[in-house]
Amino acid sequence: MPEIAAEQDHVNVLYARLDALREEAAAALARGHASDVWRAEVARLAAVEDGLCFGRLDLTGGRRVHIGRIGLFEKDKALLVDWRAPAARPFYTATAAEPGEVLRRRRITTRGRTVVAVDDELLDPAGPSDGLVGDAALLAAVTAERTGRMRDIVTTLQAEQDRIIRDGARGVLVVQGGPGTGKTAVALHRVAYLLYTHEHLRTRGVLVLGPSRVFLDYIGQVLPGLGENRVVTATVPDLVPGVVVTRVDSAAEAARKGRADMAARLAGAVRATVRVPEEPVDVEFEQQALRLDPATLRRAVRKARETGLPHNQARHVFHREVVATLTGELAARMEAVVFTETGEALDGGSADGRLGEAELRALAAAGFVLGPDDDDSPRTLLDEVDREALRTALLADTGVRDVLDGLWPPLTPAEVVEGPWSAADIPLLDEAAALVGESVPVFGHVVVDEAQELSEMDWRMLLRRCPSRSMTVVGDPAQTGSAAGATSWERAPRPHRLAELTVGYRTPREIMEAAAKLLAAHHPALRAPTSVRASGEPPWRRAADDLPGVLAELVDEHTGGQLAIIAAATRELAAALSLPVPPDLAGEVVLLTPADAKGLEFDSVVIADPAAVLAAGPRGPNDLYVAMTRATQRLGVVHPGPVPRELRSLTERRSSG
After folding, report:
1. What CA–CA distances, in Å, run from 401 to 283, 285, 297, 398, 410?
2. What is the pLDDT of residue 341?
3. What is the mean pLDDT of residues 431-436?
4. Does the structure show a pLDDT above 50 at 346?
5. Residue 411: how many CA atoms within 13 Å on its side-chain side?
6. Residue 543: which residues within 8 A CB-CB, separation 6 or more?
7. What is the 3-state secondary structure (H, E, C) of 543-555?
8. Bridge partners of 492?
9. With b meaning 16 or more CB within 10 Å and e meaning fewer, what string describes 169-195?
């Protein structure tokens, strides 16, 4: 085919240029030039190998622009335009109704470095437009068999997705979208776009926060495939290293710990560790008895707190204030003893007219040395250098430090939030760390996926890591599973902008209609997304006295793509079905809980014991909604007892045949 041959010629040029750049980067790395930079460049160029060029725009005036994962240039000529560049945007936004300068949009399919197909759209202003760009390519992508890893959608971005990705406004952008609308993919593509258009983010860094390690593994290849590999991915527990979770809270306790008022309680607990006795406190230094009265201590506490510093840093201010008082008292005692070169006191001192041992030790601690050449006239005994030396000696004295630490003790987060710890204690430990003055990594932009799961205390933890409040927040309140999670976006940092994804690409119409009934029953104010396609396979249900046996039968009969079995509890089923827990996402059959399944997608899904799913979590209907909307093709339900009323309309299947 001439068109394929022509595109192959251009693709050959692109890969030749890519190979040259890879050789240059490898050579620079071998020479040891800025090794971290060149190592990242080698990884970036390797990650765009597959699908390097995927599109072409034919524009008015005979111009042609090839679109790909990165930009490639030969001298001043653009061989390939990065999909994030302004020149590439019409590839995603041009329609027959509003073509702009685009005469033709071509999608180029490659296998390895070989062009295997081209698909052309002639944008006729008089033709109909359903708002979808590249229907054939889009449907091919969403119906392709799953591999256990998320694919990027750079070749099939739709206009409503593109608008959100290229939103350049600063601040917090909240993206709400139902199942299958591509909100995770949109968030990741937005990261790639922001890194391309905002160079400072490459040095300040981007954090992508996901709901689980399973999820982060699932999305792990998306950003490298878009030419970006300098992003930190983490879960909430990862943000506080070293915490070992050994306890599971009740739903009520988890909700209580997640409320914002816990911050004030923790602050109060930290403040309460500072003690000011009602009676004077005695301090011994070099066998001298010194005394701190309560008024002095209260004044020192007040000055320390007025600085606004965290507890451990303010403690040093308190120490300095108290030691300044002690230094003044010691200096006054010494200044009261004016002596001749023989050491005879003129205005006080010991009974025999000489300095006592305690005074001499205190003077020595301050660095003051008596000698035969000392002026015998009355004078100021200690200058400022001497006083500073005395302050240093007091601060270094073990006995003095013990007294001061008893009044204002140093603290660690673990001493504020005592273990054993649950998952809900992690943001409390982070709050305690901030109160006592431990620092955290700060990022230029933060992406939060499944953000509806975050508690108010989780949000405080994130805001400490993004003081600029540059965030992309994505989620769906209908899918909240945590007792401390949200039912709206009121908790999201303000001010924020809200964008919505309304079109569902993953979930076929038959499944979405069944899930929409569940949604309407429990969230009447929320609307399910509109599915763009039908699979021709209605979801089914089957009664089963022997749940593991029926599931094993379904596993044996399964063909075509990846099957996920979603259940409230997985340990016993894992043993019966010989499946790993935690799941292997690359496996043909995967066993997960609804929480683990969040954000993932599979060709087929079987929900095991939906009544148990409804009963297991604090937001059971939401968990069932998540489970029902993971499939791209087929959905089945196996129920050992009566089918929940929300699923009675599913087609009944009496056998697995």
Report:
1. 10, 11, 15, 5, 11
2. 42
3. 98
4. no
5. 31
6. 638, 639, 640, 643
7. ECCCHHHHHHHHH
8. none
9. eeebbbbbbbbbbbbbbbbbbbbbbbb
pTM as predicted = 0.88
Looking at residue 99, what is its pLDDT? 93
Q: How far apart (Å, rounded) are the C-alpha atoms in residues 593 and 583?
A: 10
Cβ–Cβ < 8 Å for 475, 172: no
Nearest to 81 by CA among 103, 111, 59, 100: 59
Query: Do 619 and 485 form a contact (C-beta atoms < 8 A)?
Result: yes
CB under 8 Å to 413, separation ≥6 — which residues?
Answer: 429, 430, 432, 433, 436, 438
Q: Tell me if 633 sits within 8 A of 604, measured CB to CB.
A: yes
Residue with tokens 């129920």, as numbered in its chain: 639
Q: Which residues contact residue 325 at a Cβ distance below 8 angstroms, ignoring those fewer than 6 apart? A: 292, 296, 300
- Evaluate if residue 377 carries a pLDDT over 90: no
**Residue type at 246 in one-letter notation:** T
- Dihedral pair phi/psi, residue 42, rounded to 5°: -60, -45
Distance CA 389, CA 654 (A): 90
- CB pairs under 8 A, 24+ apart, for 97-100? 97/125, 97/129, 99/123, 99/125
- The phi, psi pair for 33, rounded to 5°, reads -80, 115
Residues 52-84 as b/e (b if ≥16 CB within 10 A, e otherwise) read bbbbbbbbeeeeebbbbbbbbeeeeeebbbbbb
> pLDDT category, 338, cuts 50, 70, 90?
very low
Tens digit of each residue's pLDDT (9 = 90 or more) over 580-627: 999 999 999 999 999 999 999 999 999 999 999 999 999 999 999 999
Give me the phi and psi of 171, to 5 degrees please. 100, -155
The pair of structure tokens assigned to 612 is: 């148990």
> With bands split at pLDDT 50, 70 and 90, how would you rate the model's confidence at 102?
very high
- What contacts 34, CB < 8 A, 6 or more positions away? 28
Contacts of 236-240 with CB under 8 Å at 24 or more apart are 236/209, 236/423, 236/426, 236/427, 236/454, 236/458, 236/461, 237/423, 237/426, 239/209, 239/426, 239/430, 239/440, 239/461, 239/465, 240/426, 240/429, 240/430, 240/433
What is the distance between the alpha carbons of residues 130 and 153, in angstroms, rounded to a whole number? 19
Q: Which residue has the tokens 């056998």?
A: 655
Q: In angstroms, rounded to a whole number, what is the distance separating the alpha carbons of residues 591 and 386?
A: 73
Look up residue 554 and give its amino acid. Answer: L
145 contact partners, CB below 8 Å, separation of at least 6: 560, 561, 562, 603
Alpha-carbon distance of 160 to 25, in angstroms, equals: 37
Contact 195, 82 (CB under 8 A): no
Residue with tokens 């908790």: 491
DSSP one-letter string for 85-121: SGGGTHHHH--SSS-TTEEEEEEEEEETTEEEEEEEE
> pLDDT class for 333, splitting at 50, 70, 90?
confident
Q: How far, in Å, CA of 610 to CA of 501, rounded?
A: 28
Length of the chain: 657
Burial of residue 467 (number of CB atoms within 10 Å: 0-12, 13-18, 19+): exposed
